[in-house]
Design brief:
Layout lengths: L3 E2 L1 H14 L4 E9 L3 E9 L7 E5 L2 E5 L1 H7 L3 E7 L2 E7 L5 E2 L6 E2 L1
Parallel strand pairs: 1-6, 2-5
Antiparallel strand pairs: 2-3, 4-5, 6-7, 8-9
């Protein structure tokens, strides 16, 4: 089991944490929503919660709750700029289908 960040994504997370002035890492998860059933959640972590599974990639700690890990195990988080848009991109090998707008997925 592993969740990883690309080097570019790790640099971006470190920059966000530095700008916040606090935080120990990033929490990834999923929630039930959207056309296809699930959507990713992404938030900064100020303290480790007891049931979180922790990974480290390029010096950044990544926290995942056990229920979400089933759906995102093996995911690589990237950060991309496309024209005027920029943001995190989830490369999840478990995805079977995505909705047309790209906001939700099915495993």
């Amino acid at each position: 089991m592993a969740i990883t960040l690309t080097e570019v994504a790790a640099q971006r997370v470190e920059k966000f944490l530095a700008n916040r002035g606090k935080g120990v890492g990033l929490r990834l998860g999923v929630k039930t929503t959207g056309c296809s059933g699930m959507a990713y959640t992404l938030e900064f972590v100020d303290e480790h919660q007891g049931d979180d599974v922790m990974f480290e990639s390029h010096g950044v700690r990544i926290f995942v709750d056990p229920k979400s890990l089933v759906y995102i195990d093996g995911t690589e988080l990237d950060f991309a700029k496309e024209g005027l848009n920029e943001g995190f991109k989830f490369n999840n090998p478990n995805v079977k289908d995505e909705c047309g707008c790209g906001e939700s997925f099915t495993v």
